[in-house]
Amino acid sequence: MNPCPVDVSVLEALGVYRVIPFAQGMSGAKVFRCEHSSGWPLVLRVWSPELTEPRLSEITRLMTVIRSELPLLVPRVFPLQPIALSHMLKPPAATELDPAKLTVEFDLPVEAPSLHGSLSTQTLWSHCDAGYWQLLELMPGEPLPEEAEEDCIMVGVDALCRLHAAMSWFGQKREMPLAIRSRLRRLDQLHDILGQNLAVGRSLEAPELLSHAVAKAISIWNQNAVRMKTKLFLQLTADSSQPMLTHYVLRDIHRENLLFHDGQPSGFFDFDAVRVDTPWADLARWIGSFSVPDQVNDSLWSAACERFASHHSTLGQGDINWGHGFARRLHEATSWISLGNWLVWLCIEKRRFAVPAELIADRVNRLAASVASIA
To answer: Which H or E run includes 132?
Structure first.
């Protein structure tokens, strides 16, 4: 069976002779490592069917432009046209890959859904039964561990500043940031769905480890629902009292989406969520994705904000003064909303994820502990 929902005759025409699925994460994204006749390391990304052509065009255009400024941090998007692709590919230097990240591989050709054709004469993508797909450069490296040293985390902060400088080329605005608008909206939605009396019995049919984590999360949610909604609503509305600087940012730059090689950033991994928002939203997401002891947590946030402010080329003094407190408050809102999202997905929607139950349990437990510490 072919796990890659793309017409293999097109892949063969492009010079791809083997595709190897990467292990799926919690997002469910379909990503494949491609072996190409040139030896160049490539990745095939199959997008969700819900993705629209204008949205993919926006993401592709952004990546193409900022890669000209940051060729070592942003992957190249390759054209799905044999002649154009062959002109762009040259045999690269050897790239180290972690075999533990790869799963079952298969050789071409095999049967697959037929391609529906390209969307334009200059297309960088095509469409198949599963949605749009892209051929990208495989960036080397591994994510930092959750307990990474502060120095490594700060190197990631510097890389964010460089990326934001390139993204600001598309223009800047003064407005209420999307990070605030989206969280205020999601706060209302979650409390309409979950309320403050979510029954433990509605948890889910799952292994004991996950069931226990969900039951504990439900208890924390029920105890703090009213207080946290009020607290976060007041904080976010206060933070929106005046328009703040916004431009394109990643909006989902957690530790797994920035790769490191030999102690240096080697590639941003995921541009799915990129939109116009406050740069502080990226800092909050980045720092908030690391696990640090309570006694150093405050100092880490303070040091990260100082580093971000001193290295960021687009922030004025007013933006800096506002962002120092906002980044931490945004992380608190994100943690609470993320916990609510997991309860909705697991208890209400009964979603299934292609990852072991213990990984989901660990995620839920970490969110519950974070929320308990700020409630």
So the answer is: strand 131-137
> For the whole model, what pTM was predicted?
0.88
Residue 144 in domain: no
Q: Which residues contact 372 (CB under 8 A, 6 or more apart)?
A: 220
Q: Helix, strand or coil for residue 12?
A: helix
- Alpha helix ranges (H) inside the chain: 8-13, 53-69, 82-88, 150-167, 178-193, 208-239, 279-288, 294-311, 317-343, 357-374
Confidence of residue 49 (pLDDT cuts 50, 70, 90): confident
Q: How many structural domains is the chain composed of?
A: 2
What burial letters (b/e) apply to 199-236, b meaning 16+ CB within 10 Å? eeeebbebeeebbebbebbbebbbebbeebbebbbebb
- Asked whether residue 131 is domain-assigned, the answer is yes
For residues 177 and 297, membership in a common domain is answered with yes
Query: How far is residue 22 CA from its own chain's centroid?
Result: 16
pLDDT tens track for 11-26: 888 888 888 888 766 6
- Where is the domain boundary, 139, 162, 189? 139
pLDDT digits (tens, 9 = 90+) for 86-104: 778 866 554 444 434 434 4
273 token code pair: 């969520």
| Residue 21 and residue 130 share a domain | yes
Structural domain ending residue among the three candidates 117, 139, 161: 139
Among the ranges given (102-111, 132-141, 264-273), the one the predictor scored with the smallest mean pLDDT? 102-111
Q: What is the CATH number of the domain that holds 170?
A: 3.90.1200.10
CA–CA dist 124, 53 (Å, integer): 11
370: in domain: yes
